[in-house]
Design the sequence.
């Protein structure tokens, strides 16, 4: 065995260790490539505005973090291409420092502390998952550095403090919008719920949907739950089928939703399925195939919605990232960064408290994901869109205005 | 030896820990920024976890892979105690610590008072967390430690998963709610728009519909608030009392207790079980009892570490599962099975190295894994093997190794 003989030879051992050390040292000196997710450590040149992004660049939610990072980077590059951000009459370049949370809430505090105390960021963008933002946001709150989360939809996130904002809708509105769409546009009255109990997102969304749906005269005929990672939903679907629902509301994530859709169709349940923005991934169509035909989900934006802001964004994003079609998270990352830039301009400074006030006064900001107004609870008031799966493509179906 | 000398000797390591904790907290910490201070605390907590697991996996040679479960039990119990008590006593979640606690961020410890009510609450909740973990350790350990080898691994693995799933399924946390949701029809006092309240979902049996009601925290009982630990959203509302002082103090205590146990008759019994369970049983060692004891002590310190963690970062059910348990096992194996100082050094490396590699972006985790693999190939017995850093034999071995290098530089190939 080669490894054993190497291990026994002290000379080779030392050599290999030295080589390993040299590799480390060598790697460390190499400048990180300024790609998406790339972080160029510290040393801001005078006049540069440093903003931080913490996201799940690796781990279970890596596609969420990467998309957001690409959206933010696009906004930063645009501002820099225009010569920088004009603050109190001086054009200043913007530098983005992105850090990885490994999809773990545990890491978020460390990462935000690093961004604030090592990189001296003026504001923090992130995270996607509400549970991770809830760990990172209090750190920034205490340091009086504003946070804008692009896509954490759980209500508790902005309750952390007066320095925490978001540019996405919150789950109560998403549940309401889903219910309103089902009642008014699909005109259905009997819905069943299939809830992912291991996710706070799914739990809250299902409750809000049920409440709104009932108040609009609908009935929840049956409820079943599952845990992330499960593969077989047949028994639960059968029990739901017995109650004769006209629609199943599945506020889960795309991986399970694809399996649920396939198994439901196999059981002969050809009723519409509906979900929330957790469905927003290419993988849903990839795994679900024909089974997701005739499904709907509420989302932050629809790429084919013909508004000028969306068309321009889709073109720019495609040009920057090899023709990729941006998902909702990329659009929200882009909007979050632009709301921040607009606020820095109006504040005329990057000081925490003044910047905070400027963000709080954001009103009628025209973003890719709709017109954003920040309310008294630091949440974005904005419309929601419903997408429909039709002829193997997601198409824009409706816009639901805020309550 | 006279009694007072014995007492002094017994107290020495604890006094040293206390002094070190004070020195780091008031001295060194001033020169660190928040990020570095956070890393020091993470290192301390990981040392506690690694050293406590060393008592089971290292001393008695059992293979437990559910240690994060005890971290979870301790963390959630300690967090829930502080959380519910703070809400009941003070009506909010502010820290009320002295210059020793709750100074993790932006607060100069010297500006705070010598004593805060919160300190007592904090230490009491830490002990509650440790005791809860020890109790669970007893319940889990008693039946499973009668088994040998792989069975214990399976049972502890199952235990860790049970803790994770149970917490995931708990109800939501108490949170700030709009005043009119909690007190419908009652005008809000001046300046109050939101209050702490707990959300209750009640299923109406007649219609089968769920109704949401709210209870103000002031009207709720302590035991009604305590179980609301956030479920799958994570438990982040615990006041941050953990500081460098407490972490270093408790890490020092853990190391002191572990090394005292290792050198006592008690510890010799542990080691004999590791070397040969049948032989040690033949020598009159009640192996099951000793294994359970090691397990309970380890669970207690893991619970303490969990309490410190909960008052520092947020507890999340997804992060106290199998992956986390394995991180701790890695620290123990990397340090050398049975070596307290080895486990501590490994805990430092395992915590800091991935952070230092942040500059490498996406290659970070690959290099980290590579470093671990190299380590296991070249030093399968771990950093220090079974020795301690204060053992003379370790240094003598090192000297011999260097001498041999010098005398026969071409010893390569066949050696």
Sequence:
């Amino acid at each position: 065995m080669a490894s054993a003989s190497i291990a026994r030879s002290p000379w080779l051992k030392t050599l290999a260790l030295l080589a390993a050390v040299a590799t480390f040292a060598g790697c460390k000196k190499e400048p990180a490539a300024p790609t998406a997710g790339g972080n160029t450590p510290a040393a801001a040149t005078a006049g540069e505005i440093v903003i931080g992004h913490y996201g799940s660049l690796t781990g279970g939610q890596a596609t969420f973090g990467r998309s957001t990072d690409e959206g933010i980077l696009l906004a930063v590059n645009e501002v820099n291409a225009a010569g920088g951000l004009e603050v109190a009459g001086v054009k200043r370049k913007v530098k983005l420092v992105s850090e990885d949370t490994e999809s773990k809430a545990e890491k978020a505090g460390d990462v935000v502390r690093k961004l604030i105390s090592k990189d001296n960021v003026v504001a923090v963008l992130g995270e996607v998952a509400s549970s991770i933002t809830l760990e990172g946001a209090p750190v920034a709150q205490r340091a009086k550095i504003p946070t804008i989360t692009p896509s954490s939809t759980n209500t508790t996130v902005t309750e952390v403090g007066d320095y925490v904002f978001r540019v996405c809708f919150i789950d109560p509105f998403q549940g309401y919008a889903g219910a309103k769409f089902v009642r008014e546009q699909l005109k259905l009255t009997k819905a069943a719920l299939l809830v992912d109990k291991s996710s706070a997102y799914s739990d809250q969304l299902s409750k809000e949907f049920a409440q709104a749906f009932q108040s609009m005269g609908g009935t929840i005929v049956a409820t079943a739950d599952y845990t992330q990672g499960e593969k077989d939903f047949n028994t639960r679907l059968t029990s739901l089928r017995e109650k004769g629902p006209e629609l199943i509301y599945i506020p889960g994530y795309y991986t399970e939703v694809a399996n649920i859709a396939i198994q439901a169709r196999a059981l002969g349940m050809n009723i519409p399925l509906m979900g929330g923005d957790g469905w927003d991934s290419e993988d849903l169509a990839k795994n679900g195939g024909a089974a997701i035909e005739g499904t709907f989900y509420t989302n932050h934006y629809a790429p084919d919605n013909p508004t000028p802001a969306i068309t321009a964004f889709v073109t720019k994003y495609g040009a920057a990232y090899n023709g990729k079609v941006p998902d909702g998270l990329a659009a929200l990352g882009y909007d979050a960064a632009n709301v921040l830039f607009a606020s820095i301009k109006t504040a005329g400074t990057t000081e925490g408290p003044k910047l905070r006030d400027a963000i709080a006064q954001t009103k009628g900001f025209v973003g890719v994901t709709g017109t954003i107004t920040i309310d008294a609870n630091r949440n974005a008031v904005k419309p929601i869109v419903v997408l429909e799966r039709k002829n193997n493509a997601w198409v824009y179906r409706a816009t639901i205005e805020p309550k | 030896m006279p009694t007072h000398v014995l007492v002094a000797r017994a107290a020495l390591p604890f006094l040293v820990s206390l002094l070190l904790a004070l020195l780091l907290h008031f001295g060194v910490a001033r020169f660190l920024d928040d990020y570095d201070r956070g890393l020091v605390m993470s290192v301390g907590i990981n040392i506690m976890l690694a050293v406590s697991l060393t008592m089971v996996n290292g001393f008695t040679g059992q293979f437990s892979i559910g240690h994060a479960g005890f971290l979870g039990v301790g963390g959630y119990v300690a967090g829930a105690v502080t959380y519910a008590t703070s809400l009941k006593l003070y009506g909010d979640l502010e820290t009320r610590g002295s210059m020793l606690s709750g100074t993790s961020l932006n607060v100069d410890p010297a500006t705070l008072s010598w004593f805060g009510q919160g300190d007592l609450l904090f230490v009491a909740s830490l002990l509650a967390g440790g005791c809860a973990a020890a109790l669970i350790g007893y319940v889990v350990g008693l039946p499973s430690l009668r088994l040998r080898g792989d069975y214990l691994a399976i049972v502890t693995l199952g235990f860790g998963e049970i803790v994770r799933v149970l917490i995931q399924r708990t109800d939501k946390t108490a949170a700030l709610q709009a005043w009119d949701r909690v007190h419908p029809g009652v005008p809000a006092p001046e300046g109050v728009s939101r209050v702490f309240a707990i959300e209750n979902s009640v299923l109406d049996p007649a219609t089968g519909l769920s109704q949401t009601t709210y209870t103000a925290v002031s009207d709720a009982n302590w035991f009604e608030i305590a179980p609301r630990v956030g479920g799958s959203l994570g438990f982040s509302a615990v006041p941050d009392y953990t500081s460098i002082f407490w972490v270093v103090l408790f890490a020092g205590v853990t190391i002191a207790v572990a090394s005292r146990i290792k050198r006592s008759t008690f510890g010799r019994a542990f080691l004999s079980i590791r070397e040969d369970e049948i032989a040690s049983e033949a020598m009159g060692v009640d192996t099951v009892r000793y294994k359970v004891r090691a397990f309970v002590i380890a669970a207690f310190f893991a619970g303490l570490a969990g309490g410190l963690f909960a008052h520092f970062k947020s507890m999340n059910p997804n992060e106290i599962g199998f992956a986390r348990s394995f991180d701790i096992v890695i620290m123990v194996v990397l340090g050398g099975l049975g070596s307290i100082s080895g486990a501590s050094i490994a805990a430092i490396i395992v915590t800091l190295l991935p952070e230092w590699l942040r500059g490498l972006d996406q290659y970070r985790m690959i290099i980290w894994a590579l470093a671990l693999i190299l380590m296991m190939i070249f030093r399968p017995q771990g950093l220090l093997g079974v020795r301690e850093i204060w053992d003379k034999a370790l240094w003598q071995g090192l000297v011999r190794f260097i001498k041999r290098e010098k005398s026969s530089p071409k010893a390569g190939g066949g050696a």
